[in-house]
Amino acid sequence: MRIGVFICHCGSNIAGTVDCAAVASKARAYPDVAYSTDIMYACAEPGQDAIIAAIKEHLLTGVVVASCTPRMHEPTFRKTVERAGLNRYMFEMANIREHVSWIGKDIEANTNKAAELVRMAVSKLRLNRELKPKSFPVTKRLLVVGGGVAGIQAALDAADAGLEVIMVEKQPTIGGKMAKLDKTFPTVDCSSCILGPRMVDVAQHPNITLYAYSEVDSISGYVGNFDVKIRKKASYVDWSKCTGCGLCTEKCPSKKSYDRFNEGVGPTTAIIIPFPQAIPKKASIEREYCRQFNTGKCGVCAKVCPTGAIDYGMQDEFIDAKVGGIVAATGYDLMDWTVYQEYGGGRYPDVVTSLQYERMLSASGPTGGHIKRPSDGEEPKDVVFIQCVGSRDVSVGRPYCSGFCCMYTAKQAILTKDHIPDSRSYVFYMDIRSPGKGYDEFTRRVQEEYQARYIRGRVSMVYPKGKKLIVRGADTLMGAQVEIEADLVVLAVGAEAAEGAPHLAEKLRISYDSYGFFMEGHPKLRPVETNTAGVFLAGACQGLKDIPSSVAQGSAAAAKALALLSRDMLDSDPQIASVNLNRCVGCRKCIEVCPFKAIQEIDLRGQPKAEVIETVCQGCGLCNATCPQGAIQLSHFTDNQLLAEVEALCRF
Are 139 and 51 in contact (CB under 8 A)? Predict the structure, then answer.
């Protein structure tokens, strides 16, 4: 074997604390190394051309590049050696930037360590074998999980490009949180006017199949060929017959049901159409509030329905679908703010959340767009906004910033003044975070033009005093304690991952962080991709973001899905597990630990054996580490290859 070794300076990133020429010199003495040199920027075009030239000139059969993280540049160098005529898996990479130069300043020690890492890479490369991918067909259909603004954008972009799209939304209507907003910042334009036409486009697009009030029950398969089971929940209304006339909602005698869409600002009926612009505009029954289900004595909606759409015996329906790619756009939820006992913990009716306040401001809300105190229906004159309720607070397990609270509070202060010209708004804040285009100008406008008083400090207590609420806090800029008599207190409640997000992540076989947000493949280079091929992210499910950022990520996810599904055939990664049937004893331990369900049991002449489903295997290596017989080996990372690296490291 003839191995070439290339030590990258990476400018001063590596060369500043590593003697790259010395490392290259030491590498010349390693077994099978036919050529070794140092190079200024290996990933740059001149560096790659130099590697290709060296392969051809010195008849190299394997290449080691010592530079930065393989996660970032290994695909680049694999393509380079392929252009020179080598198999891409006859390449190894030693990370001497993150693992050496960036963690120490001792040049001699760093040089020795870099040389050891190169020796390990050479030892592994000597045992590498050429691997070839296999091709398989692609299902040209995309699943979008979540019907908020990010999911809508992803679905429409993909459908407009000619792709079949299935959208699954767990609520009875699409629109997500944006559908609940009155206006949007920083332009203060109508949320429904922006979102409504996009929702209608989803309903009417010939390439989109919408399953509202549905959930993804299970997902199996692999990139290009996912098998999805969708559970269409029983709405107890036959949507093929329902015309959305609303007669049932008018006549329903159960009028004290919790209104989920309006955040409980006002009661509603047990059979509902969420809001006038709902898509689909169909009625559904909230079983827990329905008298027919609870007492068996009602049936009014069935009697008045002109089309006979009510079906009390309806059951959940399961739909099987095959898709090539999946976009997760499950959005976010507000955290449970009632843990803040100092703000009343949900005991005071005139302490409301920001989203409840949005529904008061909305003309389609329960108050018809009139701001009223929940306790007595009077118009508030002094409104206090409290920022960072559940954001940047380690005590409640939410140390992160929710990102959009500063902006929507400023917007709500503007709308308050528009609705009640003689009102006064007070905003308690920690820091104003307004990094978007036009955002800082917007927050200054609310203070200068609308006279909202911003008080930098935390609120220590909210308590009732007669018909008023006393808000006690600190003004850190003035260095004084303040008390404000408020008619209404609005809490800028922080956001968290959507309920059930970790459970969905397990179905999708993708990673999620400690707060339940889905993990992207790389925070900079792969922000909408995951480590599971064929699964993409859009919107706040990946991390909290505002509407423009969610829309942008929805389009980005659609673009990535289109790039994947535009091909008729895909190549599988050959770095997968394989079973030595002679050593396998059928203990099933590999089947139990495989997170991708890529191993199945087969019967071989009456003996149970394990078999790897090549197209499903992601090469994680858990089975390899678990097998007590050593019957499973991971291609490109076999036990012998790893032991060769250990032996190289242990030499003196």
Answer: no
